[in-house]
Model the fold of this input.
Amino acid sequence: MGFKDSRIVYSTAHGQLCPNCRRPVNACVCPKHAPGVAKTGPVRVGRAIQGRAGKGVTVITGLALPATEIEQLARTLKQQCGSGGTVRDGVIEIQGEHRDAIVALLAKRGIEAKRSGG
Done:
């Protein structure tokens, strides 16, 4: 790997950088699914309990959206499910078991989502 192949993907001043325009993700100007930005596939809606003292959360991964839109989507999903949650590193976590409801809500918004896990 030479110097030309290296690229900055994280900056301590701005956080995560867009691989296409090299701006901070929350200030990205690239259109959705622009050339150079890899689509990660379908959105996965799963369940996790690790590190949460046995409390289950619904985890939504694979969203190909800017950080501001992920925050807005998380806010909407929390309101629709009637529970709390957070966004960590582009992953939405909603407290409780809401996989079926979230898959249905994402489908209404035109986002292809698949339920993952058991």
